[in-house]
# Entry
Amino acid sequence: MTPNTDLNHTLFERARQVIPGGVNSPVRAFKAVGGTPRFIKRAQGAYFWDANGQRYIDYIGSWGPMILGHGHPAVLDAVQKAAIDGFSFGAPTEREIELAEEILSLMPSMDMVRLVSSGTEACMSALRLARGATGRSKIIKFEGCYHGHADALLVKAGSGLATFGHPTSAGVPPEVVQHTLVLEYNNIQQLEEAFALHGADLACLMIEPIAGNMNFVRASVPFMQRCRELCSQYGALLVFDEVMSGFRVALGSAQSLYAQAIPGFKPDLTVLGKVIGGGMPLAAFGGPRAIMELMAPLGPVYQAGTLSGNPVATACGLATLREIRKPGFFDALSRKTQSLVDGLKAAAAEAGVPFSADCQGGMFGFFLMPELPQNYATVMKTDNARFNTLFHGLLDRGVYIAPALYEAGFVSAAHTEADIAETVSVASDVFKLLRPA
# Structure
């Protein structure tokens, strides 16, 4: 198909005239992988179709929310009924209570929860709450972990061990990130040094327990245990960013996996998003009652939102959570994801391509290197050019993965064994293009 007949190309050219870069979220622009982004017209189950009518097996799932697949009947019914009653009220609804109760019933670390509209908003609010609760300013985050685009969290690592970070975006003044300490993921020695130097001034440590913006990198159990111990010792709050992993890797989210390995483990605050909205703009943060009651209107930490607890979004999220808590849901989802990962590993091995992969629940990631990385520095050693060849090879054959080397993938309940088999078969063909010379 020539550019003149490619509707994706035509739409992209139109979009670039009126939207910066032609997209409303940067990774959609295919800048990292090259080529023309696909403009999606519709989706159903495990598939979506672009402007040309090309069908793709979808492994981004709207970047995680579509754990049931697109257009699940129970979710559609709930959303349609809610829309008829009204799009937005700016006043409380019973469904907000129901969704909060549903979330809390699955998350033992949380007594109360505040609903918001995006993961960025939830992380920003949780950070403000942690500072308000402790009366401290400094925070720890980890290189390669993404917590939304709030100014204080758009930070790259400093130049030395346990040093403060530098802005990663224009428009973020250095003084805004002067209290943000950026450490290496899974580095216990650096973590201990940071607390020794700054522990008395630390409001919180914020972490993705499974870092989906490094593709898929787990925090090791010893590392996570030390995070918990040091936060408790120095009076800092442990904040789990489970926007991506929440209700995606397990019914109790990633924190339930660490609780199985670390007796009594739980974070102080948890940030949720994606799955709890089922594809609608909805996120949340929550924790113990004593901390959450510091939020306005009860306490001095202010946060508000016109569309927070939106009645259509809460209907979508509530229907989604009720489906995923059905018996056997995560067992079936985990088997599918593991089958995909095992198939990709076998295909890469047969082609002689260095490859490693990991998964949990309905979330997976892979790397064009023989061993799984443990931090951002090792993730960065992946061969960009070879990944781009892999991405476009899959895309041209009807398999859509994230158009960026550092993003996790997602399997939904709608993916079938045939979808997995087709994906592995396609990948087997593409891996042959990546064979070392």
